[in-house]
Specification:
The protein folds into two domains: 134 residues, Orthogonal Bundle (N-utilizing Substance Protein B Homolog, Chain A); 252 residues, Rossmann fold (3-Layer(aba) Sandwich), CATH 3.40.50.150. It is built from 16 helices and twelve strands. By secondary structure, the protein is α/β, with parallel strands linked by helices.
């Protein structure tokens, strides 16, 4: 798998140095698509595991060095990061982890540092497991700004519980069009209280029903906001910022006439492909939601606003390394613009569901509070736990939806989502 490791090395640098999303870095790498399916999966797992455990790994590297490596040798640091991820967290046999890491160093690092890489890897073969077990993994792998944010918002204990869930690869969550009980048996999955099917991670395309369009991948938490619109059968629903389209598929499968709007034509093309596989229909519109308006005011709008995505770190550990506290404020301004536009599109008596996959209150609760505080002609419609699979812990005191990664922890956790349901007066 030397090619997979070299691609992983390139993509790790793209994430850490150029702040590129991991999936984007992989998809754009010229060699990634040429890998066999198994090797593609390994390359992604290797980078994701390195990012997920980066704080621990860097502390272990520092333990082995008298002084940090110079900036010009940062590629060697990345090689060691990938090597320790294999050795300590993926389960690669020690001899393979050491040999392939030293080979990468010989190909891509200064020749004089190859012995150092060999020495670090061999020392970690002897001492690494014990040292890693003694680390505070949850704290080390969570950037300071996120730890402060979550501690303030949810308390220290809940913050730690969230961070601990982030240490593991997430399970595979599936939303089916119908007959969830039958598909649970066929897929070897369990049915969560939210009706989502969950099974151990697998390649979706290799599972029964994928090619036939019987289901799609969607985290349990991501399936909840669309439910807050109630019975949408035969109704027109405008979905703003719709791509990649899990909620679009959900609404269409429930019988809604969906207008799915996104400003990215590339993302809409992917959404269109997903709908074609699922044999579902929606009207796709490429436009900026702050400028576009429907022909007639809408009775139902789902605004899935762009956000930092910090609620999805289980699935996208690169977010912890590509986002910062500054992004929260920048995106909050965009969210305010989108909320104002959504209100302008909404008919009197119409319902707006605002949702983000962020754990940061500045992008969630505080945006709705600012909207209502500014006098928007809206009132909150409280969420009932019966609407979301009987999860009372996911309903806030204000009556909004707030899932945390540590909810359903005994069943594998879930993504962090926020949603508020608002009705326009008049």
């Amino acid at each position: 798998m030397s090619d997979a490791r070299e691609i992983a090395l390139d993509c790790l640098a793209a994430v850490l140095r150029r702040r590129r999303p991991l999936e984007e870095a992989l998809d754009d790498h010229p060699g990634y698509g040429r890998l066999a399916t198994r090797d593609r999966a390994f390359a992604r797992l290797l980078v994701a595991s390195t990012l997920r455990r980066l704080g621990q790994i860097d502390r272990l590297i520092g333990h082995c060095l008298e002084r940090p490596l110079p900036a010009k040798a940062r590629g060697v640091t990345d090689i060691l990061r990938l090597g320790l991820a294999q050795l300590l967290f993926i389960g690669t046999p020690a001899h393979a982890a050491v040999d392939t890491t030293v080979t990468l160093a010989a190909r891509h690092g200064p020749a004089n540092l190859k012995p150092l890489v060999n020495a670090v890897m061999r020392r970690m073969t002897r001492e690494g497991a014990g040292l890693a077990a003694a680390q505070d993994a949850a704290r080390l792998n969570t950037p300071d700004w996120l730890w402060r944010s979550w501690s303030k918002a949810y308390g220290e204990d809940t913050c730690r519980a969230i961070a601990e869930v982030h240490l593991s690869e997430p399970p595979l969550d599936i939303t089916v069009k119908d007959d969830a009980g039958d598909w649970a048996a066929r897929l070897g999955a369990r049915r969560l209280p939210t009706s989502t099917l969950r099974r151990d991670h697998a390649r979706p395309s290799e599972l029964p029903g994928f090619a036939d369009g019987a289901w799609w991948v969607q985290d349990a938490a991501a399936s909840l906001p669309a439910r807050l619109l109630g019975d949408v059968r035969g109704k027109t629903v405008i979905e703003l910022c719709a791509a990649p389209g899990g909620k679009t598929a959900q609404l269409a499968a429930l019988g809604a006439d969906v207008i799915a709007l996104d400003r990215s034509e590339v993302r809409l093309e992917r959404l269109e492909g997903n709908l074609a596989r699922l044999d579902l229909e929606a009207r796709l519109v490429a436009a900026d939601a702050t400028r576009w308006r429907p022909d007639t005011p809408a009775a139902a709008i789902l605004l899935d606003a762009p956000c930092t995505g910090t609620g999805t770190l289980r699935r996208h550990p690169d977010i912890a390394r590509t986002k910062s506290s500054g992004d929260v404020g920048r995106l909050a301004a965009r969210q305010d613009e989108l909320l104002s536009a959504a209100v302008a599109m909404l008919a009197p008596g119409g319902v707006l569901v605002y949702t983000v996959c962020s754990l940061e209150p500045e992008e969630a609760e505080m945006r709705v509070a600012a909207l209502l505080g500014a006098g928007a002609p809206l009132r909150r419609i409280a969420v009932e736990s019966s609407e979301i699979g009987g999860l009372p812990q996911a309903v806030t005191d204000a009556g909004d939806l707030r899932t945390l990664p540590c909810h359903l922890a005994d069943l594998g956790g879930m993504d962090g989502f926020y949603a508020a349901r608002l009705r326009r007066s008049g």
